[in-house]
Design goal:
Blueprint lengths: L3 E9 L3 E4 H18 L1 H5 L11 H8 L3 E4 L2 H5 L18 H17 L8 E5 L10 H9 L4 E5 L5 H15 L4 E9 L17 E10 L8 E10 L5 E2 L22 E2 L1 H22 L7 E6 L4 H12 L12 H4 L6 H8 L9 E8 L3 E9 L1
Parallel strand pairs: 4-5, 4-6, 11-12
Antiparallel strand pairs: 1-7, 1-8, 2-3, 6-7, 8-13, 9-10, 12-13
Helix pairs in contact: 5-6, 8-9
Bound molecules: octanoyl-coenzyme A.
């Protein structure tokens, strides 16, 4: 058996930013337009008017201040309200692949690993641009990697589930060097016309190189152990899929074909599930909460993370112990905890211990206990 480690991480951040104020101005223009179009039905009580959104609500409810997106223009156009991305030919790399390559490049440079030495690529994300061929295999080809590649989808927990899969294979010796990449185009499956959720998500890609500690070229994080758990819930759901055209209603743009959630229930049910999961995981490893130097949590909601951090550490964590990035990125699904890890781990010293933990639809929760070397 070999000891696996994370030896490099990378984050690709799209350069277009939407602030809360910009988002709210476009949503409110859309609401006014729709309410004017439906004025008669609204007056007759047949249609509910669309309520305005508010920046103050968004910040207070979530802690989010802005989000990065691949296409700001389409999202903010009240006549469009979704990203408009150039259609690519089958001979060009897909959009997810292009984002992934940028994150992989940084991760490989940090790990000082040549792409040709990678023998496993996992593309782990909450939605795939197409059904097949696997996006991961395209990334493998564009990187010039060896071995094999496959896609995984466990919604917001995709990165930690992917890290567990890669770490187990490195541990067993079936692969030597893996890269787990999380290109998240959340703007594509977010319903920007619904004020309850239009502020939640952003686009990003992250990548993590996982290899044997013995092969590490510089400072790295040994993966002490991983733990994944799932429990079925309909509270976060998306009914889009390949059977779409087989449905008798023939409708291609129904509300439930985008992200839907019962946010309050998610909050109430997932917080205890995640804190119990993390506490049980570290206890199994013989690690006391006082020994944890850092928590890199999934980035969905600031209050949610405050609750979880307090429950796990038994006290209010300092901002530096549990870094948040969601004010700048919003929820980037599986990539959130990896962005936090990538940006806020270099200051740790050998022997320091931390936990990367992601959670979300499924429900699903994945934790990775790491020690700095
Ligand atoms: N502006 C003004 N008012 C608003 C707005 C708005 N934008 N939105 C809602 N309101 C109103 C509501 O209508 C409600 O009004 P009323 O009291 O009259 O009914 C009031 O504000 C309060 O609304 P909520 O109860 O919904 O507010 P909360 O305090 O619960 O906050 C949150 C809402 C922020 C959604 C919160 O519940 C939350 O963060 N929950 C956890 C959600 C979560 O973590 N989800 C995980 C999803 S991520 C995942 O698993 C990945 C899925 C795949 C990725 C998908 C990519 C698109």
């Amino acid at each position: 058996m070999f000891k696996p480690a994370i030896t490099g991480t990378g984050v690709f951040t799209p350069d277009q930013i939407i602030t809360n104020d910009e988002l709210v101005a476009s949503f409110n223009a859309y609401a006014d337009k729709m309410n004017a179009q439906n004025a008669e039905a609204i007056a007759a009580g047949d249609v509910e008017p669309i309520q305005h959104s508010s920046s103050a609500f968004i910040f207070k409810a979530s802690g989010i201040e802005q989000r990065h997106v691949l296409d700001k223009k389409g999202v903010l156009n009240p006549d469009v309200m979704h990203p408009e991305l150039r259609q690519r030919s089958d001979d060009e790399p897909s959009i997810m692949t292009e984002m992934a390559l940028k994150a992989c490049q940084t991760a490989l440079e940090q790990a000082q690993v040549d792409a040709s030495d990678i023998d496993l690529v996992i593309c782990a994300a909450s939605n795939m641009e197409r059904a097949y061929p696997a996006v991961a295999i395209e990334i493998q080809k564009e990187l010039g990697a060896q071995g094999f590649a496959f896609d995984m989808n466990v919604a917001c927990s995709s990165a930690t589930f992917g890290i567990q899969a890669a770490a187990d294979m490195v541990r067993a010796g079936s692969v030597r060097k893996a890269i787990v990449v999380n290109p998240e185009i959340c703007s594509g499956h977010l319903e920007w016309r619904d004020r309850d959720c239009h502020f939640i998500f952003g686009d990003v890609a992250t990548a993590s190189v996982i290899e044997r500690t013995d092969d590490a070229q510089g400072s790295h994080f040994e993966i002490l152990s991983t733990r994944c758990a799932t429990q079925f819930s309909n509270n976060i759901r998306n009914n889009n899929g390949f059977l779409r055209r087989s449905r008798p209603d023939g409708v291609n743009d129904r509300r439930d074909m985008q992200f839907m959630q019962n946010g309050r229930k998610v909050f109430k049910e997932v917080v205890p599930m995640v804190s119990a999961h993390m506490l049980a995981h570290i206890a199994e490893e013989g690690i006391a909460p006082e020994q944890l130097d850092r928590l890199w949590l999934h980035q969905a909601n600031k209050s949610m993370n405050d609750f979880i951090g307090k429950k796990v550490l038994g006290r209010t964590p300092d901002a530096s112990e549990q870094p948040n990035i969601l004010q700048d990125y919003a929820n980037t699904s599986s990539a959130g905890s990896i962005i936090a890890f990538s940006k806020y781990s270099a200051d740790l010293t050998p022997g320091n211990i931390g936990v990367i933990c992601s959670f979300g639809a499924g429900y699903s929760v994945g934790s990775v206990v790491v020690r700095r070397h």
